[in-house]
Every structure is written in C-alpha cells, then in structure tokens.
Amino acid sequence: MAHPPLDFGFRDLLHPADLLTQTPRRKIDHECPIGPDGKLYDTQALKLNNNKFLSVAGLPEILPRILVNPEAISWVDLSFNNLTHVEPVLLQLKNLQILYLHGNNIIDFPHLEILNGGITIRTLTLHGNPVDRTVGYRFIVISWLRQLKNLDFSVVTDFDRMQSEVWGRKWLMIKAKLKKEDGY
Predict the structure, then answer these.
(1) Residue 30 lies in a domain
(2) 23 CB-near residues (< 8 Å, 6+ apart)
(3) Known PANTHER family for this protein (predicted)?
C-alpha cells in the first residue's frame, strides 16, 4: 500500500542532516503514517522541495534514521532548491523512479549524466534549470535515459524518442570535442 509522502518542504533546510531536527509538515487528510516502532515514518515518497539545499550528500545515511524502509523510496522531490548538479548519492536510492529537480541551478549536461547509472528513473523534471535553455535539451536527456516515460510533466512520445537518437549522437560529438579542447 502506498502511503502519503513524508513532507519536509518549505522548511529552509540546508543539509540532509537537518531532517533529523525538523518535524515534517502535516496534512489532516493524508498524513504520513508512523511505523510500528512509533518513531520512523512509513512511506515511499520524500518531499524536500522549496528548501535551500546546495547538496544532498549524506541523504542515504539519514534515511534509515527517519524511515521504516528507506530502500523503498521511489519518489524524491528536490524541486526549488539550490542544487547545481545531480549527485552520485542519488544512485544509492535503488528504487528511485520519480525525481523532481525543477527550479534548481543545474547548468549543464555533464551534471545530469550521473542519472544514467544504476537506477531506473521513469519520471524526471528539470525545467526551470539553466540547462533547459540548451538547444535540443529534451531530446538529449531522453537519449541518455531511454526508460523515461515523462520529462518535465510531459509524456515522452515516439517522436521524442526518434529525435533523441539524432540529438544524442550530436551531443556525443560535442562532448568529444569539448573533452579534446578543454579536458572536460
């Protein structure tokens, strides 16, 4: 049974460790249940939106201290923070399928490529980051994450997939050129 998300949004949090000192937001109609031990929360979704995170380093180590089953986390909302890249620690969330990163400060593609390693993201949001102004942005992201079903709250279509093959090859050529020129 899916439980409501554990909501730490709008708390001015700076670091994942701040989750240990804050009380989650409560909603009368759908509060996140507490597990059998009376201390840990029982959920598969975590809302960390509208905070001040610069990094999520340490998040996987914090989750067992607040969740009944941290391995079950499948949805993380990190929208509207101050993140500049996607950190490898997110790959430790092996069941992560939905990741909201919109409204951050992710600047370029190399900071997104990490999502292609070891987890199966089905829904991803990146709009509102500087990277989304790159020509071909949508198709480049889809070319890396072939399993995506939704990008920026829009369904990935057959046309998107076709275009992503072309843009993916273009990006590989650009990346090789950058690597040669700048040691990228």
Answers:
(1) yes
(2) none
(3) LEUCINE-RICH REPEAT-CONTAINING PROTEIN 51
Instruction: Give the pair of three-digit tokens for residue 85.
Output: 């890249």
Give the SS3 label for residue 13.
coil
Are β-strands 150-151 and 154-155 bridged in parallel, bridged antiparallel, or unpaired? antiparallel
CA–CA separation, 13 and 36 (whole Å): 27
Q: How many domains does the chain have?
A: 1
How far, CA to CA in Å, does 96 sit from each of 77, 104, 175?
Answer: 11, 19, 27
Measure the CA–CA gap between 2 and 72, rounded to whole angstroms. Answer: 10
pTM for the predicted model, two decimal places: 0.90
Cβ–Cβ < 8 Å for 6, 43: yes
Pairing of the two strands 75-77 and 45-47: parallel
Note the pLDDT tens digit of each residue in 8-60. 999 999 999 999 999 898 876 666 777 667 778 889 999 999 999 999 999 99
DSSP character for 30?
S
